[in-house]
Please model this.
Amino acid sequence: DALANLGVALESQGRAAEAIAQLEAAHKRAGGQREDVALRLALAYERADLFDYASALFEKLLAPGGDKTPSIAVRAAAGRYSARRGDLEKAAELGDAVLAENPRHPGGLFLKGMGLLAQTKVNDARKFMQDAIALAPEAQYFFGLGLVYEAQGALDDALGAYDKAIQKDPAWVPPRVRRANIFLTRLEHAKALQAFQEVLPLAPKNGEVQLGVGICLSALASGPKERYKAIPYLAQAAKVDHQWAEAYYIMADIYFDNDKRRETVKAIELYLDSNPRDVEKRANAFRLLAQAHTASRKRREACAAWRAYIELVPPGDPKRGDAERRLYHCD
Model:
């Protein structure tokens, strides 16, 4: 108990590595037989972004071996972890197991709601989320309710739910990011920028947050040169993960706006290398690439980009006619 309690105290002080060391020692001393210590350790791994370790420990807790069965606390905690990691199928499965043992378990109700949300049964999902909150008003349950409201298009209600999640756990990043993205969706760039900047100290390496800051700074800029303020954030977002490669496209647009043709071409090529699935954005990228090459008087490269653009633009689109006229001079 002393080692485990020390680990909890160290983690509350932000000393994650030391906390994990103490919890690992406590877990080892107990021979891996104490669920409470193992759960604390698994959650500490998660908070330190050591997801492989957290997942492996949860799997061990769910399969204790012999004739033992995991407790309802373990199944609920593992299900909530799966929900946070985006594995909603497993979360729903564990939720059903929890509710089979205790139909009024708040964790089980939340997990059931997440499963229904994944099936787009949003009205049923909302009821389960609200029931979970009525029993235990925890941050993750308010977050789940916010997701339901978003799915219903009730963005004001979603903001309210995320605000409550933040009040319950100010250091938890996901509700803050969802809140910021709602403002961004509404093109309320000043509010979105403030919201993303509030998250940045909590998640300095989060690509989605960096991208959000960059988009807002670019949108709020009073002129081409001021848009440069967005570049460091966009570059960091793209560096973190190809998932945020859209940052390259925005960088290219900023460079083109400032007559930086070489930088424009490089950023667009990096964006296209990420193989974006959005056909319209991919087409726009080729159009910008063609314009950059045209401005640099690189006729062959410009013609190749216009041809790629034409292949992606549907017939009847007014922009297609302009591209076809340009291609006429390529032959």
Summary: The first helix runs from residue 2 to 12. The mean pLDDT is 92. The chain has 19 helices and no strands.
